[in-house]
Amino acid sequence: MIRECVKRKLIITTFALIVFLITLTFPKVEEKIENVTISYQSGNTFPIYLLDKDNLVARTTLAMKETSTIEQAKEIITFLTINNSKSAYIPATFEPVIPNNTTLLSIDIQDQVLKVNFSKEFLNVAKGYEEKMIECLVYSLTELEDIKGVILYVEGNMLQKIPNTATALPSLLTRDIGVNKMYNLNSIKNVSKTTTYYIAKENDTIYYVPVTLLENNDNNKIEIVIERLKSNPSLRTNLMSYLNASSELSNYEILEETVYLSFSPLLYEGLANTEMTEVVKYSISLSLKDTLNIKNVVFTEDTTPAE
Predict the structure, then answer these.
(1) Any bridge partners for residue 205, and if so which?
(2) pTM above the 0.85 mark?
(3) How far apart are CA 79 and CA 57, in angstroms?
(4) Exposure string (b/e) for 61-76, b if CB count within 10 Å is 16 or more?
(5) What is the pLDDT of residues 201-229, one digit of tens each?
């Protein structure tokens, strides 16, 4: 009886030891998958311009794992391509626009200009989206610090017109092409071009939509942008601006690549929290950086007592 009991314990102990050794040799699949996800999400976030649900070119930020300019440019183009390998990382609010199966044939940087050569599938862009595709590409790629402009090629030939249209394109594409353009022109004289970043909201996600307005206006561009941000645009009713309509720009100064703005205290009046205050400041900053081609915007509050 005792011998049988000892034998049983020995068998149980041996079996437990075998199971323990097997678990040590098996790969931890779940842990590896989790590490891959965490590694990607911890990468640098980068602004990319995609289409929102209203088919407007919209600014969002996505995680980027690449660091060199060329590799980042390749990753941006991947994000912008329909049915791309990174689709799972694009929020449901946004959609890519470069046609499915488009191949990046080559990419090169020369004198801060990015030369991008696509396969012929690039020309299969859906009707009505041709100009939006160019805007998404140019605005996304010129967010790269070392890139001032883009030259597009298809099968080695420079793209001279917006695909499937008769509209000519400049050989060097910069942010001067504008985005989500609106026109209010009655003359070719005193044409002012300003880009204003409005706020859009989808569920709990806040993002920014740039709108370029070409109009006959010889006012200072800083004043034009601030005035436009005091009211909602006529382009789409879902675009908003939280800048208080009663706020006043007391003073401004441009020194080198920085603009200094001084506002009345009413700038932040009526805003629910600090987050919304930052949203207002961010929309002003994005607008002035694009319109004036500057790098920094500094906000100060005018504390001069009212007379």
Answers:
(1) 202
(2) no
(3) 14
(4) ebebeeeebeebbebb
(5) 888 889 999 999 998 888 889 999 999 99
